[in-house]
Amino acid sequence: MKNSRNKIPADFEGRMERLQEIVTALEEGRLPLEEGMALYKEGVECSRLCREQLEKARHQMSVWQDGEEKDMTLTDAVSGRQPDEEESI
Amino acid sequence: MSNDMTIQSVRQLTEQLRRMVERHFPFVWVRGEVGNLARPASGHFYFTLKDADAQLQCVWFRQQQRQRGTFDPLTGEVFETPPPAPEELLRQGAELICAGHVGIYAPRGQYQLVVELVQPAGQGGLAQAFEERKRRLAALGYFAQERKRRLPWNPARVALITSPHGAAIHDFWRLAGQRGQAARIRLYPATVQGDGAAPSIVRALETANAHALLPDGPQVIVLIRGGGSLEDLWAFNEQEVAEAVFRSRLPVLAGIGHEVDVTLADLTADVRAATPSHAAQLLWPTRQELFQLLDDMDAALFRCLQRRLERQELRLGSLARLLRAHAPQRQLERLESARGRLAAALRRAACEMLDRRQRQTDHLTRMLRSLWGPSRLTVPERESGALEERLRAALPRLLVRRRQDVFWWEQRLRAGGRQYTDRAQARLERLDVRLTACDPLAPLARGYALVADARGAVVHSVRQTHGGQELSIRLQDGALGVTVAQISPRSDTPPAATEGEG
């Protein structure tokens, strides 16, 4: 188990992984109390950050064009879809 | 499948069969001759396809017929003249190739082909090409389950390959909006229909795979296309597309057309989604799910902490109790009470031991007394005293008596001896007298003579003699030799007796 105070990963999966790791470590329950408390705090922080991330989560769309990445916004105007396609699942 | 022991309703069984059949035959091509053709007011066609050995119920719904329109479904060519109307195509006895999925019509318990596409048998090239290609790629292991990779969970970086103008990207985007973390979706635009579609898809796949090597590169490729006719989707059946999917370093999620549409790209992909929307669903968990996961984690965290604190509290409590229990005062008290207990036990044990000994002693004493009590001892003691007295007194007496005896016997011996000699003397004298009196020669002194023959024998009678016999006559002072001259026997007495007296 990494002793990683203030080393919470920046990305969602990393945080989720870290959170899972912390829960597992705590569930095993072989840690000294101090360390356990520190881990708990870190876990709560991880969870809070993940939650924030999820609440704000918006996918970003970009397009690879002419050998570079460009911003892209999807508008419903660009749609050749037929009415019955959505119900096909 | 369901347990054999379960009794199912007809509906349940039919439902299972329906699912099975639909899963196994999502899209098939069938060739046969039309029979039993019917077209009720609904506008659907009902007919059978048959050959020499079998027949197949078919239904061609009106909506599917409607899709046939202004272009050739096989070539994509736009018709200048309208295609043959369905009723022209479907004629009793016509040889047709029909494409569609096999389903089960529950009310009649009947399986049937749900037709999507109908073409005259003469034009079956595309269908054959598809089947051949599918066989070849299957033989190459393109569809093997073993090589299917899992999609990354809740990916943050996604390569999307589709047309920027199609329905697919919108469907995908709309579903994605409620799911997953904030992901970066990069579109690799591709033509998905018509000439040049296949090379364009292959290029996009290659570019996305090349980007996978970069630090911020995509984690997964999503290849989608909206629903359309079989021909719309044909690019996804091209071998080069299947090959590119097969070669892809990144896992590929394909969602092409409708649920019933299966392309070679779908079959080759690591995961197949039924539709573009379904692809978004497979790619990301819903936000609710993620929130729930976080809630679970929070709960687990809290539970762990709670448990840990409770455990520590318990431990602290028990340690505190132990500490109190081991305080010196308590220790002393405990020792004192232990000592008291031990002392009492010791006293009790000692008493018991003494009692036991006492009882033993009493018992032995009683036994001893009954055997050797003073009552028994006093008599012999007295007796022994007296005997001793007597013994002591007896010895000197015995000695005195013995001495007296000795003396007495001595006296008697002496007296006896004297008497004996005296008596012997007297006897001797008497015997001597008697002896003297008895001496045969004694009378000789008084004048008697003794006559003997020549042999010395005493002659008692005259009868012992004869005339002329020589005899000896002994006198007191010598002897005389005589010869018998005469014999004169006495008349009354025997001569011998007289001589003997003589």
Helix-and-strand structural type of chain A: alpha+beta
Mean of the pLDDT scores of chain B? 84
Identify the quaternary structure here.
Answer: heterodimer
Label the overall shape of chain B.
rod-shaped
Rg from Cα of chain A? 21 Å
Order of helices and strands of chain A: HHEE
Biggest sheet of chain B: strands, sense, closure?
Answer: 5 strands, mixed, barrel
**Broad shape of chain A:** elongated
Helix and strand pattern of chain B: HEEEHHEEHEHEHEHEHEHHHHEEEH
Written description of the protein model:
With 89 residues, chain A is α+β, with helices and mostly antiparallel strands. Chain A is 45% helix and 11% strand. Chain A is built from 2 helices and 2 strands; from the N terminus they run ααββ. Chain A has helices at residues 12-28, 33-55, and strands spanning 60-65, 68-71. Chain A has a two-stranded antiparallel ribbon with strand order 1-2. In chain A, helix 1 runs antiparallel to helix 2 (33-55). The longest helix of chain A is centred in the middle third of the chain and has 23 residues, at 33-55. The termini of chain A are far apart. With 502 residues, chain B is α/β, with parallel strands linked by helices. Chain B has helices at 10-24, 62-67, 86-89, 125-139, 167-176, 197-211, 239-247, 264-268, 276-283, 287-325, 328-372, 374-437, 495-501; strands spanning 28-38, 45-50, 55-60, 95-105, 110-120, 157-162, 184-189, 220-225, 252-256, 271-273, 450-452, 470-475, 478-483. In chain B, the strands form 3 sheets. A 5-stranded mixed β-barrel of chain B has the order 1-2-3-5-4. In chain B, strands 7-6-8-9-10 form a 5-stranded parallel beta sheet. In chain B, a hairpin with a 4-residue loop joins strand 2 and strand 3 (55-60). In chain B, helix 6 (197-211) runs parallel beside helix 7. The model of chain B is unreliable at 495-502 (pLDDT under 50). Strand 1 of chain A pairs parallel with strand 7 of chain B.
